[in-house]
Automatic annotation (TrEMBL):
It comes from Oryza glumipatula. The keyword Flavoprotein does not apply. The lineage of its organism: Eukaryota, Viridiplantae, Streptophyta, Embryophyta, Tracheophyta. Belongs to the glycosyl hydrolase 28 family. Coiled coil: none annotated. SUPFAM superfamilies: Pectin lyase-like. It holds the Pfam family Glyco_hydro_28. The keyword Signal applies. Residues 1-24 form the signal peptide. Keywords: Glycosidase, Hydrolase, Signal. This is Pectate lyase superfamily protein domain-containing protein. GO terms for biological process: carbohydrate metabolic process. GO terms for molecular function: polygalacturonase activity.
Length: 445
């Protein structure tokens, strides 16, 4: 890890210490009950893997350890302890009623040999790999149909060694869609905490078709020029809590998704009841995003106490003709921006399509978005809100949004949108100054 990243981690640790000293803060992490006391404890070193020498492939050791947990069926499940050292591995699956614990100084490092990465079926709500037709590479740490899974530790590291994958993407030689660092599918009662995710080949943390998920006190790092290294992407999932994280990657820090065009509409599982709090970070793209894959719908989202710097967008809510679905009842509050190009973009023309079979008449509904208490400095452009001519975005509320720049901040741009704006600087566009959207705006504050 480079010197700059160490400084970032030190800054995060210092901020965490301040938070602890300041006393308890509002949290949603109790949506997942505390894991029961595990009835068994085992060390990865007992299963081989070269003792964490960083050279010996440990895939078989991880697989054997998980298989042992499944066989033992200890009361309350089992904890797999990953000792200090570098554990080089290919992808492996987790199991239910399991804690994966990374000790301080423990590194789970992904092999860069693509032959060690199995191919799996595309997600049904995407219909194909997100980048290329056909299957996709399995995530480094994977699970399907699990219950009561904890990934935690003493700030150990999960290292994707993504540079080889990024090079293939840039050169156009990628044969299939790149893998995530962590993907859990169709799972419930999941907790991810106190772990560093680093240099993922693709998206970092991807809970999909999941419920009751808590992700807190994690650090996610990747270079700003690393392609599509989203930080945390809850996808067609419900009851999700994301809190107290530092994220600096090459794409959106947090992006809520729910499937892609006709496949997402057919699967029909929204992302709903998602709470995001106290997130700090930097990205060439967005700090907080919804979309653009929203064909199953996104609703009942609260994102608050966000701090983004040196980024492309502070808030980016995005969809497209052919997506269908909906984005509604989303509140973003108490946001601090520094050196961000656009404070806000809500757009109906973002994102491609999986194939030519999408329904061009499937128009998304964007309704009931509240953006309030935003303070920005060194902002270049206030932002834009552009709906779709035949499906205007409605009930968009901006309140107490104050944006400043070294030079004059470029004005708002609006099109096919209705709503209201209260105490917004620079002055809002005329589409948000009518009285028609005022009642929603005042009621939502």
């Amino acid at each position: 890890m480079g010197r700059q990243r160490w400084w970032l981690l030190l800054a995060v640790a210092a901020a965490a210490a301040v938070v602890v000293g300041a006393g308890a803060q509002e949290t949603c992490s109790d949506m997942v009950p505390a894991a029961p006391r595990r009835g068994a404890w085992m060390s990865l070193a007992s299963f081989g893997g070269g003792g964490g020498d960083g050279r010996t492939l440990s895939t078989a050791a991880f697989q054997a350890a998980v298989a042992s947990i499944e066989r033992r069926r200890a009361p309350g499940g089992a904890l797999l302890y990953v000792p200090p050292g570098v554990w080089l591995t290919g992808p492996f699956n987790l199991t239910s009623h399991m804690t994966l614990f990374l000790a301080r100084g423990a590194v789970i490092r992904a092999t860069q040999y693509t032959s060690s990465w199995p191919l799996i079926e595309p997600l049904p709500s995407y219909g194909r790999g997100r980048e290329l037709p056909g299957g996709r590479y399995m995530s480094l740490i994977h699970g399907n149909g699990l219950q009561d899974v904890v990934i935690t530790g003493d700030n150990g590291t999960i290292d994707g060694q993504g540079s080889a994958w990024w090079d293939m993407w840039k050169k156009g030689t990628l044969p299939f869609t790149r893998p995530h660092l962590l993907e859990l599918m169709n799972s419930s009662d999941v907790v991810v905490s106190n772990v560093v995710f680093q240099d993922s080949p693709f998206w970092n943390i991807h809970p999909v078709y999941c419920s009751n998920v808590v992700i807190r006190n994690v650090t996610v790092l990747a270079p700003h020029d690393s392609p599509n290294t989203d930080g945390i992407d809850p996808d067609s999932s419900s009851n999700v809590c994301i809190e107290d994280c530092y994220i600096s990657t090459g794409d959106d820090l947090i992006a809520i998704k729910s499937g892609w065009d006709e496949y997402g509409m057919a699967y029909g599982r929204p992302s709903s009841h998602i709470t995001i709090r106290r997130i700090t970070g930097s990205s060439p793209f967005a700090g907080f995003a919804v979309g653009s894959e929203t064909s199953g719908g996104v609703e009942h989202v609260l994102a608050e106490h966000l701090n983004f710097f040196s980024s492309g967008f502070g808030i980016h809510i995005k969809t497209n003709t052919g997506r269908g679905g909906f984005i509604r009842n989303v509140t973003v509050s108490d946001v601090t921006l520094d050196s961000v190009r656009y404070s806000l973009r809500i757009a109906g023309d973002v994102g491609g399509h999986p194939d030519d079979r999408y329904d061009r008449n499937a128009l998304p509904v964007v309704d009931g978005l509240t953006i309030k208490n935003v303070q920005g400095q060194n902002i270049r452009e206030a932002g834009s809100i552009k709906g779709i001519a035949t499906s205007a975005f409605s009930r968009i509320c901006l309140s107490n949004v104050k944006l400043n720049g070294g030079a004059a901040v470029r004005p708002w741009k609006c099109e096919a949108v209705s709503g209201a704006a209260l105490d917004v600087q620079p002055s809002p566009c005329t589409e948000l100054t009518s009285t028609s959207g005022m009642s929603f705006c005042t009621n939502s504050l």
